[in-house]
């Protein structure tokens, strides 16, 4: 992918994210201004390869959408779709674009992508899963859950998952012997 | 692993969104916080995955053939990425504070794609003569989003040996043109000087020997090239010993150790002696052994050999070693080594106890120096030898006295050039009564040593940091030493 194509795709993705955010939120004037301003900042950051502007735009857009979207439960399908397509995916897309604004190439690993996707799916669906499990074992106890309970479930699952996935120590890069390295470098030059 | 400012900003935002969700009882804020957390998790997992697949090779190369103190030395660093992922990070060569960067930068941000090589150059100025170590390269890796970073130490050790300052060579050449150790007659022109040479012997031909010195008659008889060797009539074989003990290597008030001055003087005196057709050899010795040695000769390129040996003289000792080194200089000068040892650092204590052990059984008196002198004497073929010892008479005082006794016994001459410690450190502080008494005590002690050396028939010259080889040569020629 050429840099120009990548830039075009990135800008299109940023616009699509903004549209999704506006489509699933209460499109008040304040929300419109906030999301548009944030999106313009993200696009400006992409065009100028300037991460701080793009990140600031992301935060403005996310805060505007968060304030104008009312999600009281994640157990219902309609609110779950709103949360996923109107908030979760657009924010992830904008964050990705903002943080890679200065990069020439996109580095994607297969295993990390699968692990992160699994983590995201489990976190977003943590409330329906918890409700299903709860109803199976204690039907009387979980007849009606409050928003606070759902917030607690989501945050608990997200925190536990994040701790599990990030608690391991990093491996050390393989650094080869200097004499052997000198030979290899001579070979590569030849 | 560290979190970058950008990472911290996102983390704070994430927590704020989560608090907002609790405060406003709205799950939308929590979902946003969850999205940001996902990006963090992705960043961390990808970072670990990439590091696990990195195969890195770093090599250093010195681009200059000869490195002088106070002049830039160019270094090239090659980074070969043999892994399957690109390496993005900041590479920094770890240089000790005794050297400073002259050009380029030892800290460079590089992106090395898989199976490619990247290089960067820089030059640094070694302030002092001696070995300067580049202990390795520090790599500050960043994750793909720039949220996390990790420091990796790459142990690619490089030792850069810096010679004395370039001006010292010019000074040696200049002095050699002006000064000489003795009067060599009405003229010093090579044509006349050569007539004063007498036949010494024949040896096998060595590449570089002059054509007129080849023994052509022997070629017709033996079929082998032989070279006639000559010695200058009345010339002395001279052997210069440079003390490389720890007390000589300590950095003085000017930020320069005495050994640097000793190396400069030795090089300049060697040049003067060689230009006057005297055979000269050089040896480096410390408290226990002879480090390097070349026998007295007049061979071609012998000055280069001497320079090569002097280049190997150990460098300065940093402040870490100063505590133990200062005490060591007093080892030979004062009795009761065991009492001093109790106040020292562990390293200094171990060293002192080792030296004390050697002294107790008598082996410490003249170890190295004495052995080297005996070796020279056994090879002299009846010719008189002048031994010049450049020392601060600190840790090697007993060795020098033993050497003087040996010279007296064998009928050779000896000149002790004493790099007097107090003159090198006189500017350290203002002189009050206590300091004056200390200086007086040191001078009295020094005069005693001088008396003992003169009693053994040796010459003695006390020098300070401002004294030059020309001064020493003039003093010797005029009989002031």
| Average pLDDT reading of chain A | 84
Beta-strand content estimate of chain A: under 5%
CATH superfamily of the largest domain in chain B: von Willebrand factor, type A domain
Note the total helix count of chain B. Answer: 16
Number of domains of chain A: 2
Task: Give average pLDDT of chain B, whole number.
Answer: 79
Rg on CA atoms of chain B, Å: 31 Å
Provide an overview of this structure.
The complex is a heterodimer of chains A (about 190) and B (about 475). Chain A is mainly alpha-helical. Chain A folds into 2 domains: about 1-105, no CATH class; about 110-170, no CATH class. Chain A has helices at about 5-25, 30-50, 50-70, 75-100, 110-125, 125-135, 145-165, 180-190, and one strand spanning about 175. Chain A is flat. Chain B is α+β, with helices and mostly antiparallel strands and about 475 residues long. Chain B folds into 4 domains: about 1-50; about 55-160, Immunoglobulins (Immunoglobulin-like), CATH 2.60.40; about 165-195 and about 235-475, Rossmann fold; about 200-230, no CATH class. Chain B has helices at about 5-25, 25-50, 165-180, 190-195, 215-220, 245-250, 260-275, 300-310, 320-330, 335-340, 345-360, 370-380, 395-410, 420-425, 435-455, 470-475; strands spanning about 1-5, 55-60, 75-80, 85-95, 100-105, 105-110, 115-125, 130-140, 150-155, 160, 195-205, 225-230, 235-245, 280-285, 290-295, 385-390, 415-420, 460-465. In chain B, the strands form 4 sheets. In chain B, strands 1, 4, 6, 8, 9 and 10 form a 6-stranded antiparallel beta sheet that branches. In chain B, strands 15-14-13-16-17-18 form a 6-stranded mixed beta sheet, with helices on both faces. A 4-stranded antiparallel beta sheet of chain B has the order 2-3-7-5, with no helix packed on it. The longest helix of chain B has 26 residues, at about 25-50. The interface between A and B is large, with 66 and 65 residues. Strand 1 (about 175) of chain A pairs parallel with strand 2 of chain B.
